[in-house]
Design a protein that fits this description.
There is one protein chain. With 220 residues, the chain is α+β, with helices and mostly antiparallel strands. It is built from 5 helices and 10 strands; from the N terminus they run αβαβααββββαββββ. It has one domain: Sandwich (Jelly Rolls), CATH 2.60.120.620. Strands 1, 2, 3, 4, 5, 8 and 10 form a 7-stranded antiparallel β-sheet that branches. It has a 3-stranded antiparallel β-sheet with strand order 7-6-9, with no helix packed on it. It is globular.
């Protein structure tokens, strides 16, 4: 972990963690998850359910996070001591367009700090943002042949109302260079703040589905 990671997280709301995560564990998890029955619509399973499903142990999931400097980066970003909550962390499957099941929809623009928030129809009434961090780790290369993430590199201190999350409206509100859809390799990850806007990045020519881990960290 470097000063650059902390700087980009603070100034852009997201930082790229290059080659930080064990490819061997990620590949084994991807292979095991091939037998997992994902629930329709969400195509996501909480990480705390994977051990009982015979996919991976809790210890191995947490071992992925035992990286020099990661805890310091997490604690500096919130700030203070943090803890990963596997109940609110996920293994997600996102589909290439040609493989998408009926009724499947990729994630639209959202902020993870809206977890559990209750919105009213009034755009002027926005609930407070939850304090958390998201560490997103694909189980394969993504962003070119399989869906990745698109993010808006702008740290936001509060939630936007759902009426403000239309793609056209966001592109009118933020400069074009703020929109970022990185191509990640196995072992890479993204760490982003609760207000960082993001969505599934998918293009018509993509042919492979994608699996990813989504760890959520909360203040202790």
């Amino acid at each position: 972990m470097s000063y650059t990671n902390m700087q980009s997280l603070s100034e852009q709301g997201v930082t790229l963690l290059t080659g930080l995560f064990c490819p061997g564990i990620l590949t084994r998890l991807k292979n095991s998850a091939g037998t997992l029955g994902f629930p329709a619509i969400s195509y996501a399973v909480p990480l705390n359910a994977l051990e009982a499903a015979g996919i991976v142990s809790i210890a191995e999931l947490l071992a992925l996070l035992e990286i020099d400097g990661l805890t310091d980066l997490l604690s500096a970003a919130l700030p203070g001591p943090v803890q990963c909550d596997l109940q609110h962390s996920w293994l997600r499957k996102r589909f290439a367009p040609q493989n998408a099941p009926r009724l499947y929809q990729p994630n639209t623009w959202h902020q993870d700090g809206g977890l559990g928030a209750s919105f009213t129809p009034d755009p002027a009434s926005v609930p407070p943002m939850n304090r958390l961090l998201t560490c997103w780790i694909p189980l394969q290369d993504c962003g070119r042949d399989s869906p990745g993430l698109e993010l808006i590199r702008e740290p936001l201190d509060g939630l936007l109302h759902y009426t403000e999350l239309d793609d056209l409206r966001l592109r009118q509100s933020f400069a074009p260079d703020r929109f970022w859809a990185p191509e990640l390799e196995l072992g890479d990850g993204l760490l982003f703040l609760p207000g960082t806007l993001h969505r599934t990045h998918v293009r018509p020519e993509m042919e492979q589905d994608r699996l990813s881990l989504e760890y959520r960290f909360f203040p202790v």
